[in-house]
Automatic annotation (TrEMBL):
It comes from Solibacillus faecavium. InterPro entries: Lon_proteolytic, Lon_Prtase, PDZ, PDZ_sf, Ribosomal_Su5_D2-typ_SF, Ribsml_uS5_D2-typ_fold_subgr. Residues 100-186 form the PDZ domain. The lineage of its organism: Bacteria, Bacillati, Bacillota, Bacilli, Bacillales. The active site is at 234, 279. Keywords: Hydrolase, Membrane, Protease, Serine protease, Transmembrane, Transmembrane helix. The chain crosses the membrane at residues 7-24. Its EC number is 3.4.21.53. The keyword Membrane applies. It catalyses: Hydrolysis of proteins in presence of ATP. This is endopeptidase La. Belongs to the peptidase S16 family. Residues 228-345 form the Lon proteolytic domain.
């Protein structure tokens, strides 16, 4: 009997391990953390003598197992997402990670640009080239470029704008040669490619990559950012507010604990993000007083694609009501909306 019991336990243990560790082609998303932004960025000799704080919020995501898949089905604000809804076409784990980290880098750039602009302080922007996000299999760049590469020169011409790159590449036809200078891991590498048909493009030709612009910004005082393990663009709004709070003597938090989310664009617009309901849940658990939510415009094209879509702000309000949160949900279309709200806010007693 004892040996049968051990055998049954062994079988149960193997099944449990399989349910816990076998990877499915899905992700599980759930409320992540709520973090004080001042722990991640600082301005040299910046004002940090404030009563309140700004917080960024995150969504946690991991590859599903049978056990976590089952848990998500019965747990509020846990969702099962297809891998194809998260990753771009042909994107592997490395490329997905590179893309998310690039989004965070862009978020930091835009936050710094907007904050120094609003504070009336000088800054210097340098165009670094084009950042490779994804290399298409069987395309011209396959085997030559990698995600994370920066294309700094094309056919002996420095890439000082996206328009410069397009002017050089667009006239080329299938079979033409193209010479790239690429920055990889701090070193410059020469790459010679042959223009090919872009896979899946129905006859268009090119080098077969997806990319974004790469820029840096130099400021005085200097900004230091430490977000190596955080990806995505959604912390942009809160980064901008924290930078402004350190740049000026006034405590713009007015003593409140303020969280929020939203991509920061160069023109000061606050962009739509995903998973806002999970971020509201996370912020509420931390006892946040005020939550800034993007008041994004829903276009006809968006409604045609998804008839049930609503703005981030509307979802945030609905979520706060469902969980009976005391947080004040504030709609923001631009950084100025957030600053105007804070300017008119009475200090916390």
């Amino acid at each position: 009997m004892e040996s049968k019991g051990k055998y049954a336990f062994g079988i149960f243990f193997i099944i449990l391990m399989g349910l816990s560790f076998y990877r499915l082609d899905f992700y599980i998303t759930k409320p992540g953390g709520t973090y004080n932004v001042s722990d991640f960025l600082a301005i040299q000799n910046g004002d940090q003598d404030d009563q309140g704080s700004f917080f960024m919020t995150t969504v946690a995501m991991g590859q599903a197992t049978p056990l976590s898949y089952a848990m998500a089905a019965v747990t509020d604000y846990y969702d099962v997402v297809k891998m194809t809804d998260v990753r771009q076409e042909e994107e592997d784990d490395e490329e997905y990670t590179v893309r998310q980290l690039k989004y965070m880098t862009d978020s930091q750039f835009n936050a710094t640009y907007v904050a120094f602009n609003r504070a009336g302080l000088d800054y210097q922007v340098t165009y670094k080239g084009l950042y490779v996000l994804n290399v298409l299999a069987q395309g011209a760049a396959d085997g030559h470029l990698k995600p994370g590469d920066e294309i700094v020169e094309v056919d002996n011409m420095r890439i000082d704008s996206l328009e410069t790159f397009r002017t050089i590449v667009t006239p080329k036809v299938k079979g033409d040669k193209i010479h790239l200078v690429v920055k990889r891991d701090g070193e410059l590498i020469d790459q010679n490619l042959e223009i090919k048909e872009i896979p899946g493009s129905e006859g268009r030709v090119g080098i077969g990559i997806t990319y974004s612009e790469s820029k840096s910004i130099k400021t005085d005082p200097k900004v230091t950012v430490k977000t190596e393990d955080i990806g995505g663009p959604s912390a942009g709004l809160m980064f901008t507010l924290e930078l402004l709070n350190q740049l000026i003597d006034e405590d713009i938090t007015k003593g409140y604990e303020i969280a929020g989310t939203g991509e920061m664009l160069e023109d000061g617009t606050v962009g739509r993000i995903g998973g806002i309901e999970k971020k509201v849940v996370s912020a509420d658990k931390e006892g946040i007083d005020i939550f800034f939510a993007p008041d994004d415009t829903i276009t006809e094209a968006m409604l045609e694609y998804n008839p049930s879509i609503t703005s981030n702000y509307e979802v945030a309000v609905q979520t706060a009501a469902v969980i009976e949160s005391d947080m004040k949900i504030v709609p923001v279309k631009t950084i100025d909306d957030a600053l105007n709200y804070l300017n008119n806010l009475q200090p916390k007693k």
